[in-house]
C-alpha cells in the first residue's frame, strides 16, 4: 500500500512539475488527431457512398482497406518515411489510412441496408437520385455512419502515439521516452492524458451523432419538445466551445511556427535512444551559443536508416551517428577495428558519393559491449567475451533486434567467431531487456559502452580482448550544402566533439535514464560546467 501511495505521489509530482510539457504534447496530439480524422471523414464517406452505388467496387475497395488495416503501424510508418519524410505529415497520413476502413465500411453498410421499398417510394414521388441520397439514404444511414466515425476517432487517438517515433511529437513522446528509460511515471504521464483524451473525443462525437441524426431515429423520440430542445442547445454549446478551443490551438501553433521562422536556421535530428537525444541537444545549444544560427532539435526520430534518409531528403540538416554504424550499416563494409581507418573511409565515401560532410570524430566511443549481472559473472568466472564459451549452453541471451540482424558486428558474427551455442536467444528492443535481465528471465544483454542503464543496474561488461566490435566514435554528419551555407558551424561542432568522453557521456545518460532529468537540461549543464556556453 505504501509503495502504491509513493508511486501515486510521484506521478502527481511529475504532473505538477512537467505540466507545461504535458500540455504542449497534448495540444500537438489533439491537432494531429483532428486533422487526420477530418481528412478520413472527407475521404471515407464519399468513398463509402461511391461503392454503395457502384457495387462492383465494393469488394475490391473494402478488401484493400482490410489489407491495409492488417499492416503493422510501425511498418506503415517505415514505408512512408522515404516518400513523405519525417514529422507530422507521415504520422497523419498513417492515421488517415488506418481510420478509413470503419468509415468506408459503415457508410457502405448503412446505405445498402436501407429498406428498398422506402427508396422505391421516394423514387415514385419524383425524387431524383441525388435527392434520394441526401434526403432519404444519408439521414437513414447516419447512425451507422457515425458509429464508424466514432470508432475511427477513438482509434486515431491511440494510433497517434506512434507519431513520436518519427519526430512528430504528441503524447507518444512521453510514453516511448518512459519505456526507453524504464520510467513508469513518464509512461503514465503520456498514457493517462491519451486515455482521457480518447474518452473526451468519444463523448464529443456522441454529441455530434445526436445532433446530425434525425430525431425520429433517436432513442429519445417521444421526449417532450422542450426537454429535447434544451438537450440539443446544451450539446451545441459544448461542441461550440470544443471547436473554438481547437481553432485556438491550431491558430496558436501556426502563429508560433511563423513567428519562430528564421532565415538562418538548421534542424538537428536524433535517433531514438537517450545518448543520441542528449547529443542532439548538446550540439544544438553549442551552435546557438557560438553563432547566430537558430537550431530546431527534432529528437527521437527512430533508427539509423530513418535519420540518414531524413538527412538525405533535406528533412533534417544534421544528426549524430557513429563510425561503426556508418561503416557497416550504411556503407556496407565488413567490420574492422582500426579506428582511424574506419573514420577516414566513412568521411571520404560519404563526401564523395552522397555529399554528406563528416566533421571531427569525438573521443566518445559508444561501441557495443556484452553485459551480465555481477552474480552471473562471479558464478561462471566471466571477465572477457571469450569466457562465455565455457557456459554459453546454460545462459539465455537477450539482445535488441538490430543487434540480432547485424552480421558483421552483431550476434551472428559473435556466434560465428566464438562458436557460441546459447541456451536460448530472445529479441527484446530497448530498455525492457535490462528489466528482463534484472528479473532473471535472461542472463546476457547487448549494450553500449556509454549506456547509462549499465550504471543504473550495476552490470558487469565483458572485455572485448579480441577486438570483435569495431569503433563507434560519435561523428557529426551534415549535408554539404548546409556547411557551404553556414561554414561557421564547423568550429563549435569540432570544439564540442573534442570535449566528449565515454565517462562524461555515460554520466549524462545516467542523469536522464535514472534521475529523470530532461536531455536539454543535462546538455545545458554539461556545456556550462565545461565553459562551452
What's a quick, concise take on this entry?
This protein is an alpha/beta fold and 533 residues long.
Main attributes of the structure:
533 residues; alpha/beta; D-Maltodextrin-Binding Protein, domain 2; 3 domains; five-stranded mixed sheet; 63% helix
What report would you give on this structure?
With 533 residues, this protein is of the alpha/beta class. It folds into 3 domains: 2-226, Orthogonal Bundle (MetI-like fold), CATH 1.10.3720.10; 265-365 and 472-529, D-Maltodextrin-Binding Protein, domain 2 (3-Layer(aba) Sandwich); 368-462, Osmoprotection protein (prox), domain 2 (D-Maltodextrin-Binding Protein, domain 2, 3-Layer(aba) Sandwich), CATH 3.40.190.120. It is 63% helix and 8% strand. It has 23 helices and 10 strands. The strands form 2 sheets. It has a 5-stranded mixed sheet, with helices on both faces. Helix 2 runs antiparallel to helix 3 and helix 7 packs antiparallel against helix 9. The two termini are 46 Å apart. The model has no long low-confidence stretch (mean pLDDT 85).
Helix content: 55-70%
CATH superfamily descriptor of the largest domain: MetI-like
Number of helices: 23
In what order do the strands lie side by side in the largest sheet?
2-1-3-10-4
Low-confidence stretches: none
- Specify the structural class: alpha/beta
The value of Rg in angstroms is 28 Å
| Mean pLDDT metric | 85
